[in-house]
Amino acid sequence: MTARFKLNSSLAADTAFVAALDLCEVRLMNDANYPWLVLVPRLADAIEIADLEADVRHLLIDEVARAGDVLRDVTDAEKLNVAALGNHVAQLHVHVIARFREDAAWPEPVWGAVPRLAYRSEDRMELIDRLADKLAEGSG
């Protein structure tokens, strides 16, 4: 969208590309404890949802909902957690996390509950492919 958009280095290091939607880059968090998407609007200097123009804000929420639907469909999640915290990384990004009653943090938030568990490469690629395919089904 914006030529000046640059993905934050922490987000780049902690996630893998899944798909590009109209507004957001969809990325998979490298934590096999929880299937976890991060949506990053491709807007330069975006920090807060409240600062977005109404039409862009609505598109962001639509894309978050779409990502949540896909994540729930692919993982059979019992619950979705959605958050835009930005305490460590100011760049606007929205977490969409699949939750299960048997996951390591249930019913608490996932942050800091257990050490991050990196995906095995083949498991990560399989999940990315499934998510990307489902996201593509709903496009255009």
UniProtKB/TrEMBL annotation:
Enzyme category, top tier: transferase
Domain HIT stretches: 37-106
Domain of life of the source: Bacteria
PROSITE patterns given in the database record: HIT_2 (PS51084)
GO MF annotations in UniProt: methyltransferase activity
GO biological process, alphabetically ordered: methylation
UniProt-listed Pfam families: HIT
Keyword Magnesium part of the UniProt annotation: no
Record has Electron transport as a keyword: no
Protein name, as recorded: HIT family protein
InterPro entries with a match to the protein in the record: HIT-like, HIT-like_sf, HIT_Hint
EC number(s) from the headed UniProt entry: 2.1.1.-
Upper lineage: Bacteria, Pseudomonadati, Pseudomonadota, Alphaproteobacteria, Hyphomicrobiales
Protein keywords: Methyltransferase, Transferase
